[in-house]
Write a structure and sequence with these properties.
Structural class: alpha/beta
Strand order of the largest sheet: 3-2-1-4-5
Order of helices and strands: HHHHHHHEHHEHHEHHEHEHEEEEEH
Number of strands: 10
Oligomer: single chain
Low-confidence stretches: 58-63, 127-133, 135-142, 346-356
Number of helices: 16
Shape: rod-shaped
Length: 356
Amino acid sequence: MPMLWILRALFIIVIIFAFIFNATSVDISGDNRNFWAVFWASFILAAIAFCVDVFTPKRKLSALAGVFFGLIVGILISAVLVPTVDVLVKYYQVGLINEAVMAIKWTLSICICYLTISVVMRTKDDVRFVVPYVEFAKQTKGAKPMILDTSVIIDGRIADLYQSKLFDAPLVVPKFVLNELQLISDSADKLKRNRGRRGLDILNKVQKDPTIDIEIDDEHNPEIEQLLGVDQKLVMFTKLHRGRLVTTDYNLTKVAQVRDIDVLNLNDLANSLKMIALPGELMEVKIVKPGEELDQGVGYLPDGTMVVVENGRGKIGKDVLISITSSLQTAQGKMIFGKFEEYTSRKENNGNHSQD
C-alpha cells in the first residue's frame, strides 16, 4: 500500500525533525540528562509506534477522509494521555526541565496520531462497527465494481453485455484470476489449454476496447493471499471492495450467496432472457468423445458449451455440421442437442461415406 508507506516515511521525518528542533535548543543541549531523556523518549516511542503499525494485520482504505478522522482521534487521545507525562516526571522525580518534558510530550502526540491514522487506514470495517455513523466508502465510477472470475472471462459474453450499455460499472480482474487463466492456458489437457487461451485472448481484446472500463488489480493483500483456492479469494476480494461478483460457476454463485455477497450469474441472466439456440439451425462442431447413449457423440463450443450429437459416436475427431434439435439452459450452463447432417470437409465426407 503506497499511501501507507508514504505515511510511515513522513512519520519518521517528522520524528527526526521534532527531535532535532527540541534537542538543539540551548536549555536541552546544554544538559546531558535532558538531552538523552529526549533522545531515548523519541527513539523508544517512535520504535514502538512503528513496530505496532508494521506487525498488525493490514487492510486498505484509500479514502482520504480516513486520514483526517484518524488525526482527529489521535489529537483527542493525545489530549488525554499527554498530561500523564507530567504526572510521571513528578512522581519519579526525574528532574527534567520544562523544555525536555515538552519535547517528550510532542513525541508522544506524534506517535499517537500516527498510530490512529494507520489503524483507521487498515481497519475501516472495525471503525464503522465502533462508530456506526462513520463510513469510509471507496469511490467508484457508477455502480458497484463488477469482479470477474475465470469462468466468465472464458465465457466472453460479459464484453458484449458491457458494450450494450446494460452495465455502467467498471470491470475488475484480480491478479489471482489472471494467474489462474495463465495456469489453465499452460495445462497439459488440450481442452483446458484452449479454454485458457481463449480467456486470455478475450481479456486482451477487452483491454484494447476504449468503450470498456476494465482494470487488472495488482494489489497485494495478505488477508486475501493467505486464503486457499481462487473461489475463497474471489469472495473475500469482492467483499473488501464492495463489488458484485460476476461468474458462470453455479457452486461459486451459491457460496457467494451464503456469504451475503452480491453475485451475478450470467447463466441465470441468459436463462431469464431465453437465450437459446433455435431448433433447425445449423452448427459446426468437432466431435471429441462418445456420449452416454449408444450412438451419441459429444463436442464443445469455444465457450465450453456441451453439444450432444445423435449419430456422432463413429465420427470422433471429425468436424461435422449438425442441425439443432433442442437446447437446455440451466444455472449450471447450457447444453445443445443436435443430429448429424454432414461432414464440414468434402474430403472427410468422401473418406467416411462408406461408414454411414
